[in-house]
Each structure stands twice: as C-alpha cells, then as structure tokens.
Amino acid sequence: MNSNKIKILLEKYFEGNTNLSEEQILKAYFSKTESIPQDLAYAKSFFNYLEDEKNIRYAEKKKKKYIGLWISSIAASLILIGLIIFQNINPAQENTIVYAYVNGKAITNKAEAMAYTREAMATVSKNLDKGTKHLNQLQQFNKVEQLIKKERQ
Amino acid sequence: MNKIEYQNIIDQLKHKVFRFARTLLNNNTDAEDITQDVMEKFWRQKDQLKDINNIESYVIQSTKHLCYDHLRRKMVIVKNNESLMHTQNVSTNDDENVEKPEDIKNIIRLAINQLPEKQKTIMHLRDIEGYDFEEIASITNLEINAIRVNLSRARQSVRDALIKNKSL
After folding, report:
1. At B1, which CATH number?
2. Which residues of A touch B130 (CB under 8 A)?
3. In a domain, A59, yes or no
4. pLDDT tens string A9-51
C-alpha cells in the first residue's frame, strides 16, 4: 500500500471512522514498512507504542501483603507441632503431680513428700524451741533489771 | 463453572485485565493489585456467571469500575493532603510535574495518561485490545456515536503531543 493511501486512511483513523480491518492495515503498514515518509514518522511511533502495549503480560504477583502472615502462621504451627511431639515423648510427666521440690528436685511420690514435710516441720519446731529458750532468759534479765530500777528510786 | 473452565477464562483474560488497569492507573503495582482483586471477585462469583453471556465484557467492566474507584479514593487522599503537600510541592515542582520525556514512548504514555478517563478507557479498548464498537458500548454504557467522538479526540490528542514534541 502506498503512503498516499495510508495518509487517507490515517485521516479517517484520527476521525474515529476506521473499522477494525482498516486499523489492522495501518498497524501492519507501520510495523512492516522500512522506509516511512518523514511526515508519517509520528504515526509509526504511535502504532509501535500500541503494539508494544498490546504485548504486555501480567506476571503472577507474589502476595507481598500476606508474607508476614504466612511466616507467623508457619511459626505458630511449628510451635504447636513441637508441643504435641514433646508431650507424646514424655507421656509420664503429663499426669504426675509434683508435691514438692527439695533442693530443686521434684518429688512426685506422696509418701516421700510426707517424709520430707515431717522432717522439715521437725527442724522448724526444734529451732523454735531453741529460740524461745533464749527468749525466756531475756525475759528473766528484764525482770531483774526492773527490780534494780525500782530499788534505786 | 468448574475450576478448569474458570482457569481457562482467567488465563485468557488476566493479561487484558492487567493491561487495562495499567493504562487507567498508570501504575504497575496498583494494576497488579486490581488484577488480583478482579480475579478473586470473579472466582467468588463463578457460580452466578453461568447466566452472563459475555463474561469477557463483564470482567473488563468490573476492572473499569475497580480502577475508577481506586482513582477516586486516590484523589480524595491527594485532596486531603493538599495543604500538607503544598509546601513540599513548591520546591519539587520542577522535578516531578514538568514533563521531561526521555523518549517517544514516554511522550505517548504521558499524553494518554493526561486524557480524560472516558477517552483513555475507549482508546485502550479499541487501539490496544481491538474491541469492536458494540463491545466497547456494552463495557462503557455509551452510545456508539459518543464512543467514536471520544476515540477521535483521544487519538488526536496523542498525535498532537507527538507532533508538538517534534517541532520543539
């Protein structure tokens, strides 16, 4: 197609009166013709641009927004899985009651715990006896001191 | 519509949706978001879509609505920030707003971006996607005559921008 016919078609195109097949002729002309008259150079740029835009593809987008959520849900799942596994590995501990800790050691046997408790009570009362004995001596001393004071008056 | 049918339609349409959103929003990231939104919306509605005889124009129409809404929201944000931005704009005005197109492609992109929404929409649908006037009418709810007028104005504006640039 010669450039005069193209110019006529172009006028029609800019008036909005070309049909799709005429527009196809224009696109083909500008994409395939090597030597385009200088006064039509603008139209070549124009149709090249349209052709480039037509070939743009949508690249599946990574869901950036949800990455944080993903990481935290994975972390939460791992912790949960870890807990379940841990409980399955140590099933004995699940139903035992720790009655006491003696020097950091857990006592799970009731009788043993009782024994430790009695021992501890005895220690406390023995020390309490010692304490009150000295307190009696002190009271004795106080009485004597007051007697002396009275006599001086 | 089963999953395979849906996937086929989406595979054909997603590029069109993306290109359309890209033209309307002039921003790749926003266009990607809109494309994703349109596809998700389409998936949710897949059972009701049996009755729609032209799924493509329905999807393109949804894209148009979502993009227009997006632009409105952006405009509100810009307006709300206008007083705040004003002082900053004075200093950066020369760098950002004055067009310094590096190549012809940018001149064209800028010219298209400055078109009124309606013209931009119609020009994209016709000159990039190659829709016929009836399809454009069903997407835009405009008379074919009005479509021709808008298309002609849009094409001429871009042409004028190109010619003007050459004479400079």
Report:
1. 1.10.1740
2. 20, 23, 54
3. no
4. 999 999 999 999 999 999 999 999 888 999 999 999 999 999 9
